[in-house]
């Protein structure tokens, strides 16, 4: 496994974060795959970078010129909400999501919420392991994907 560095994203990594998102999205069979074009996703991610805190996981590779990293995970948050958390297939289940969630908790002020698709049972278990609890479930009627989802919340103990 490559060494992973977790840090705040640099603006020039916007396209790399879109690539992580698109690769992870393709792995989710329960969501429509044709909602947006590549250009639309890139415009959306520029908006994310302009309005949210974006954290990345960078896989570091040593080479003769020094370290050459590749963004393999991303999390964006703002207003007490995690809006996006995606890890590139091939790097999933290696602690990257855990590290990004822990960074988000540190940046949060003690409270976070997020939405997760109901069919994504692995993600639901992941968030539950990190102290998130279900606050509300919906039938998906109000989300763009039309997939049932749930709102989950985390609060620092004693907060």
Strands ordered across the widest β-sheet: 1-2-3-4-5-7-6
Query: What is the CATH first-level class name?
Result: Alpha Beta
Helix content: 25-40%
Number of strands: 7
Find the structural class using helix and strand composition.
alpha+beta
Name of the CATH architecture: 3-Layer(aba) Sandwich
Spatial shape: globular
Any overview of this molecule?
There is one protein chain. The protein has one domain (3-155): 3-Layer(aba) Sandwich (Aminopeptidase). It has four helices and seven strands, in the order βααβββαβαββ. The chain has helices at 14-26, 38-51, 96-108, 121-129; strands at 3-8, 53-63, 66-78, 81-87, 111-117, 133-138, 149-155. It has a seven-stranded mixed sheet with strand order 1-2-3-4-5-7-6. The longest helix has 14 residues, at 38-51. The protein is globular.
Short recap of the structure:
By secondary structure, this protein is of the alpha+beta class.
What's the layout of helices and strands?
Blueprint: E1 3-8, H1 14-26, H2 38-51, E2 53-63, E3 66-78, E4 81-87, H3 96-108, E5 111-117, H4 121-129, E6 133-138, E7 149-155
Parallel strand pairs: 4-5
Antiparallel strand pairs: 1-2, 2-3, 3-4, 5-7, 6-7
Helix pairs in contact: 1-2
List keywords for this structure.
Aminopeptidase; alpha+beta; 4 helices; seven-stranded mixed β-sheet; globular; 159 residues
